[in-house]
Structure formats: C-alpha cells, structure tokens
Amino acid sequence: MSGTGVVVLAAGLGTRMRSRLPKVLHPVCGVPMVRHVVVAAKTLEPARIVVVTGHGAELVEAALADTGVTFVRQETLDGTAGAVRRCEGALAGCGRVVVLNGDAPLITGESLARLAAAAAGRPLAFATCRVEQPGRLGRVVRGPGGEVTAVVEAAEYEGSDGPAEINAGQYVFDAAWLWSHLPEVPLSAKGEYYLTHLVAMAANEGRPAATVEIPAVEALGVDDRVRLAEAEAVLRRRVLERHMLAGVTVEDPATTFIGAEAELGQDVTVLAGSRIEGRSVVAEGAVIGPNTTLRNALVGRDTRVEASVVEDSVIGERCTVGPFAHIRGGAVIGDECEVRNYAEVKNSRLGRGVKMHHFSYLGDAEVGDGTNIGAGTITCNYDGVAKHRTIIGRGVFIGSDTMLIAPVTVGDGAFTATGAVVTRDVPAGMSVRGVPAKPFERKERGQASP
C-alpha cells in the first residue's frame, strides 16, 4: 500500500450552533469552514480525500461538489471511530490515513506536514496543544517517561481543573494498523465509538503514539457562534497579512474584509470600509474603496472603484466606477469606461470608453465603443411579462432623460435629444427627439437658425 488518504469528519449535528445550517457550512472568512479543512488537507497531496457526511448531508455534499472529494454517509452518528471505519473501502490501497475535524478551519498545511513526518514508524501520531481551560476537550495522559498512555474525554475526566495538554483532534495513522484495530474500539457510555481509544491501544502494545504540539488557535473547534467569531477574526487577519506581504496595500485592516478565495495583484490598494468577497479577482494597480463591495467581481488593471457595489460582473482596465454605482448581474464593462454617480448597469456589455456619468440605468443592453449615456437615461427593458434587450451602437450620443423602450436598436453615430422616448429603431447617424421620438435635422453648435 502507498499514498495518503484523508478523512474529514463532517457529519455532526452541531447543536450548540443553534442553526438550521449544518455546522461545517457556517462561513469563516466567506468560505464554509469545512472547505478550509479540505484546502489544508490538499497540501499533503493525498491520493484521496473522503468527507464523512451525516446531518445535512445533501447540503454539505453540494458545498464541496467542486473539490474532487469522495463522500461517505454516516447514517447513524455513532462517533468518530464509527465514522472513520466506514471509510475503509473508499481508502483501499492507502498506506496511511489522516483524520481531520471538519469544524477546525484554522489548521494549517505546515502543521499537518509536521504531523505526517512524526507518524513515520508509529501506529499513529496526533496533534496536541496546551490550553488554560480544557473544557469539553480530551486531556492527554503521559507516563513517567513522557510517553503518551491515553486521551481522557472530558466526560470521563476526574482530575483537577486548570491548564492541560489536550488532544487537538488531528491524526495520522498507519492504515493497516488502523483498520485492524478499529473493530476493537469499545462502545462508550454515550453509545459512541471514539478514535481516542486507539491511543491507549497503541500504548498497551508498547508502541505509543507520537505527538506534535501545534498552536492552540489551530486546534479551535467551532461548535458555537462565539468560537465562530474567534475563527473569523483569526482567519481574516491571516488573509489580510498574506495579501499585504504579497504587495497589496490595505489602508485600514480593522475595517477591511478580503475573502479567503479572493485574488489580488501587486500594487492593489484597498481603502477603508471595503469588502472583497467570493472569488473576486483584482488586477495590478487597481484601487478599491473606500466603502466598496466586490462580490465575485473581476476588476482590471489600474481601475478605480469608489464607494460602489460590483456583483458577478467584469470591469476592464483603466476604468472609473463610482461613487455610488451598482454593477451587477453579469455586466461587462470595457476598458477605459466611466460609470459614475448613481449609475446602475445590469446584465449589459459596455464597449471601450463608454461614459455614463449620472443617475442612469442600463439593463439588458449592448453599448458600443465611445458612446455617451446622458444623465437620467433608462433602458426600459421589462414590459411586465418579459425582459428585452437594447442595442446601442458606437459613438452614439444618448441625451439626458432618454427612455429607450426595449427591444430597440440605436445605430452607430445616432443622436437622441433630451427627454426623447425611443420606441422604434434609430438608424445609424440619425437624430431623434420628442415623445415618441421622431427624426429631426440637428444643427451643429454655432449654426444659425434659418
């Protein structure tokens, strides 16, 4: 047997969370906490990762569907050893088995690598840490020579309170030893089978477990909303520091949120009060903020987005967005565009150099290069039954307060006067005005009236 298999335990009820959402799906830094565990596990380059699901299995499996993991159902929640035992078939051929808790999102790849190295030649190794108040955590018991003899669960502990070494909940097992010993794990008084019994089994055989001490913060198990907030604070700071060390300026870390899956290029500046969520990507030299939200947005090089919201959309290079703009619904903003005060763009594509400065709405529209959208312009895209598209050509001048009643096309170089209500297609080069808009001969500036 060769290779590493990983088991992520994600079946628990999480009753202390007091939530309809499965515990492991509560987000930490914008990502379900169990995904952080899967990401850490992948640093070991395992042959397989198996996620054990139970409570809310369908939701958990959907949240991890794109990660390449295998799922095993724990229909009866009979403890950690019961969960791992169900994975034997899925991990056939693996020489060692790593077991991780799905509610411990702060574990790092570095600690897992140390743990895997410590397990060499041992039946198992597990992570420990020292805490002031163990609370519900299992305590590590050592013999006179410092060797581990057992892990005592909190419900069975009868010693004094105070600081203690506790089991952090991450294990590496020799696979053959694990599968041969799991059937021998006794049933606890609570009617569950615990992995911690394997520690005493190894000691009784004269082959005690190895241990690796990790920072207490990495062992944090998120089982209520207080610990969820603690994990959020730690991971948020980790993400901010990672970006700052990579060349991103964060003006005010205390008021800035960058999601764990966001990507930022060098020389990006994030100003106070901004949030970069989801799988947003911000290219080199862009300035985000202040008070801006990006949600699954792509922002091009040297673009400025100020006091605005961009959702599920793409903004090109050298653009200016905001303040108080809203870009959403799959919009694509071309290079060198200006989308300014109180402008909204939804499910539309703007060509290079489009200017849309004030109080306007473009929905379900195509706008050609160099077109000007005047203040108060609206594409009237919904007729009460269905949405319709508006096509605006290149170099078009759309006058203030123009209403474009979709479906409608305005050709290249056309002109609409202030207050025009366009109900029919406007050919290229034509000028229209009025309600409804009709053609007229537009005088150039300075031209005398007849």
TrEMBL record:
Start and end residues of each stretch annotated as Pyrophosphorylase: 1-225
Cofactor: how bound: Binds 1 Mg(2+) ion per subunit.
GO cellular component: cytoplasm; membrane
Residue numbers annotated as active site: 358 (proton acceptor)
Annotated Mg(2+) binding sites: 103
Keyword check for Metal-binding: yes
GO annotation terms (biological process): cell morphogenesis; cell wall organization; lipid A biosynthetic process; peptidoglycan biosynthetic process; regulation of cell shape; UDP-N-acetylglucosamine biosynthetic process
Annotated EC: 2.7.7.23, 2.3.1.157
Subcellular location: Cytoplasm
Annotated keywords: Acyltransferase, Cell shape, Cell wall biogenesis/degradation, Cytoplasm, Magnesium, Metal-binding, Multifunctional enzyme, Nucleotidyltransferase, Peptidoglycan synthesis, Repeat, Transferase
GO terms, molecular function: glucosamine-1-phosphate N-acetyltransferase activity; magnesium ion binding; UDP-N-acetylglucosamine diphosphorylase activity
Region (N-acetyltransferase): 247-450
Residues noted as binding acetyl-CoA in the record, renumbered to the chain: 375, 381-382, 400, 418
Binding site for UDP-N-acetyl-alpha-D-glucosamine: 9-12, 23, 74, 79-80, 138, 153, 167, 328, 346, 361, 372
Keyword Heme: no
Ranges where the record places region Linker: 226-246
Reactions it catalyzes: N-acetyl-alpha-D-glucosamine 1-phosphate + UTP + H(+) = UDP-N-acetyl-alpha-D-glucosamine + diphosphate; alpha-D-glucosamine 1-phosphate + acetyl-CoA = N-acetyl-alpha-D-glucosamine 1-phosphate + CoA + H(+)
Family under the similarity heading: In the N-terminal section; belongs to the N-acetylglucosamine-1-phosphate uridyltransferase family.
Protein name, as recorded: Bifunctional protein GlmU
